[in-house]
Each structure stands twice: as C-alpha cells, then as structure tokens.
Design a protein that fits this description.
Binding site for pyruvate: 49, 206
Shape: globular
Largest sheet: 8 strands, parallel, barrel
Active site: 137 (proton donor/acceptor), 165 (schiff-base intermediate with substrate)
GO molecular function: N-acetylneuraminate lyase activity
CATH superfamily: Aldolase class I
Pfam family, one: DHDPS
Strand content: 5-15%
CATH class: Alpha Beta
Distance between the termini: 28 Å
Number of helices: 12
Family: Belongs to the DapA family.
C-alpha cells in the first residue's frame, strides 16, 4: 500500500532486554502506542536508530509484525529494508509488504560501495516488490554514495523512489532538490538540519530523537509547517536543539535509549558493539530535558 508521507516520522529504536541480547516485544508495543498518543505521523521500523545492522533478519521481521499488529491504521508504518545483501533486503521487503507495511524505505547495501548501475538495479527490485516508489535513505557517510541532484531526479523519474530521507548534510543540494519539481520529496534526516529543512520545504523528518521526545518534535513541525509561525518555531527550536546536540555528541542510540528511561519508559541497553550512555552523559540529558520542560512520558495501555 502506497501512502503519502509528511510530518514527524519517528525512527523508533528497538527495545532490548537488560544486556541487549533479545528484543523486548512488550516494551516495543508500549513505545509504538506512545508514539501514536503523542501525535507522530508515522514510525520507521528498523532504521539506524533501530539498530538494524545488529538485528537478525528474523528479528527485523518480528519488529515489522509487531508494528502492524500494534499501530496499523493509527499511524503510517514505514519499514526500512536495507541490508548488506540484496538477498536479505528483498526478503525483508517481501515480508513487510505481505505483513501490511504502508511504505518501504531502503538504504543501499553498505559494505561494498555500489556503482550507479548497481544502485539502479537494486532500487528497481525493491520498488517492484513495493509496487511503487520507495523512500531512499540517502546517507553517503555510510554507503559511500553521494548522489547528485541529477541522479536523484533520474531515480524518481524511473519510478524507483518518491522521497529521500536526506541525511547527506548538504543544505545547498537539499534546497535545490526541494525547488526541483522532478526530484524526490525531501524528508529531513539529520538533527542539525531539522528546522532549516522543514522551513525550506521538506515534507517532514525522520529522526531517532522523536522516539523519546515526540511531543516537542511535533510542536516544531506544527509551528513551521502548519502555522507558519517562525517566532514560535524558533522558540521551540531553542528548547529542542540542546537535546539533539547532546545526542550527537554522546552516542546517538545510547542517548535516545537513556532519554526514554529518564522519561519513565525503559527500553534496555543498545546491542553491542554500542554501550549504554555513561553517567555524565545521562546527567546532562536529564538536565536538558528539565530545562526544556519535558517530563515523564504518559502511560499507555
């Protein structure tokens, strides 16, 4: 099923047990319900903040099934199916579509750097399974593929992609894409660029931070994209940015999970090789949440 995308699309993390060896499915369901309750417009399953690179294919399928069972019809479910091999990626794509995902997102296989024809062929196969264009996770730092505006337009015109999660951190190119009617729709994919890209025409954001601070991210989106109130947006951003900056400086996945615990929704440790946030970083995050006026997450059934 193809559906349009906009708003705050949370790259939800994957709750684990105490030592990170197994997925906590009950905590995952609570987390997804909390996202819906606090107004996010969609959830991304098994993205980078979801630690997809350390999950087995079976675990990734179980997350997709849990998301569909928990929030199907209540928010948009986007399943990230990129993997190190095309075999696994296509297997995940078929499973996600059969299970009931609303959209697919895919990062390019990221160990051996793909050539342009390799990428076109890969995306054509994923789009065929999706029965329509997908979201391309554009993250050159990981894939080594720093696509040009012309290449992204070509992928769109070929019917392979409709949106990009723009994690390239190239603001000039992002603006050019947003002004190019033949280009994919831009979804902000980096924390520092969130407000600037939304204000410049991005249709939404995909960030891990909105998994544990969804309400302030939704507030920013509403101020920028719905109310067009720059002063209000700047006031929200002034509260939000110090939190985002702390995540970036102290280990993003570990800090987002620490943030959820600080807000009363423990989701366990990251999976190794990532380690939990240290006490100093946690104390910093606790202080920043308090300064932003962000308290406990509301309980969900």
């Amino acid at each position: 099923m193809q559906t349009d995308l906009s708003g705050i699309l949370s790259a939800v993390f994957t709750p684990m047990n105490g030592d990170g060896t197994a997925i906590d499915t009950a905590a995952y369901a609570r987390l997804l319900k909390s996202q819906v309750a606090l107004g996010v417009h969609g959830v991304v399953v098994a993205g980078s903040t979801g630690e997809h690179s350390t999950l087995t294919t079976a675990e990734r399928k179980s997350l997709c099934e849990a998301a569909v069972a928990t929030v199907k019809g209540k928010t948009t479910i986007i399943v990230q199916v990129g993997a190190t091999s095309t075999r696994d990626s296509l297997d995940l794509a078929r499973h996600a579509m059969a299970t009931g995902a609303d959209r697919l997102m895919a990062v390019a296989p990221y160990y051996d750097r793909l050539r342009w024809p390799d990428l076109q062929h890969y995306l054509s196969q994923v789009a065929a399974i999706a029965d329509g264009p997908i979201v391309y996770y554009h993250t050159p730092r990981v894939t080594g593929l720093d696509l040009t505006e012309e290449q992204l337009v070509s992928l769109t015109q070929s019917g392979f992609i409709s949106h990009i999660k723009d994690s390239a951190a190239d603001f000039t190119r992002s603006v050019r894409l947003m002004l190019n009617p033949g280009a994919p729709k831009v979804i902000a994919g980096t924390d520092p660029g969130m407000m600037a890209l939304l204000a410049s025409g991005a249709v939404g954001s995909i960030l891990g931070a909105s998994t544990f601070i969804p309400e302030i991210c939704v507030e920013l989106y509403q101020a920028v994209c719905e109310k067009r109130d720059l002063a209000a947006a700047q006031a929200v951003w002034k509260r939000l940015w110090p939190i985002l900056n702390a995540l970036l400086l102290n280990g993003y996945v570990a800090m987002t999970k620490a943030g959820a615990e600080l807000r009363g929704m423990p989701v366990g440790a990251p999976r190794e090789p990532l380690l939990p946030a240290d006490d100093e970083a946690r104390a910093t995050l606790k202080r920043l949440l308090a300064e932003a006026g962000i308290g406990r997450l509301p309980a969900v059934d």
